[in-house]
Amino acid sequence: MSKGVQTCLGILVVLLCPMLSGCIGADNLTNLGMNRGIPGGLTLACLDGSTYTSMVVEVDYHPGYKPESTSTDMLLERLESVCDKPQGIQIQFSETSFSNEDIWSANDVRVAGWDAKSNDPRDGSTLYWQVLFPAGVYEDSSVLGVAVDASTVALFKDSIDDAENIFRRPSAEKIENSVLVHEVGHLLGLVNTVYTSPADHEDSEHPGHSNNEDSVMYWAIESASIANFFDNELPTEFDLNDKQDLIGLNDGSIKCTDQLWRP
Question: Looking at the domain assignment, is residue 6 inside a domain?
Fold first, then answer.
């Protein structure tokens, strides 16, 4: 079977799977006693290099749940390609024993994330974002990752491992690669979270996600349906529309809302 036929079959199976509620968990943000922003709320702080000249992605992982180096290396490359940080972007790892090893809500992720943060998201000239790798699963077990506020996302390795099909095509490592970039893409505001794109590339049935299966922001990347891409090659890049949106947000040609910081 040719690669093209395999891809088409994989996409067809995905489209026949039940719809997912979404991987942007921005519920109950007003009940936390402080403004932590919505996913995309620090988009301009990442894209602009005038105030926040460096960036750190803090990775807090439960013992035994450290992410694959391919995933974090890829994330660093993607951020460096779109964010202006003249003093560089770093990834820092911290083994963290989260008390919850069972079922997580968006608010559980948010609270655990802020408890574990080493720095405020805006500390001096450094912007800090955070990725959690806890034990356990999201309350919707088909969700592989979730963005919960302007600086915090979580990936659920137990669910990612379960999403690997019996042929390991795609493998859990490749799934993790795509899901990590996807969730941080939501921190960048993609797709249409804190703006309205001039391009028609948002999936109408999955708000906040791309309708292009070649974009890492494609809606199926967030879910266990990802296992149905049989050719083992998953999107890991922002597509042209994603990149043009980020350029427009940075140069002001696209209006950006709900920002915790503006240049």
Answer: no
Per-residue pLDDT of the chain (263 residues; tens, 9 = 90+): 333 433 332 332 232 233 333 477 655 444 343 579 999 999 999 999 999 999 999 999 999 999 999 999 999 999 999 999 999 999 999 999 999 999 999 999 999 999 999 999 999 999 999 999 999 999 998 899 999 999 999 999 999 999 887 667 688 999 999 999 999 999 999 999 999 999 999 999 999 999 999 999 998 887 766 655 545 678 999 999 999 999 999 999 999 999 999 99
* Within-domain flag for 14: no
Closest CA to 167 of 10, 2, 8: 10
Domain membership of residue 79 as a residue range: 23-251
Task: Please report where in the chains the tokens 């921190």 appear, as a residue.
Answer: 187
148 within domain boundaries: yes
Structure tokens at 195: 């703006």
Would residue 86 count as lying in a domain? yes
Query: Does the predicted model carry a pTM greater than 0.70?
Result: yes
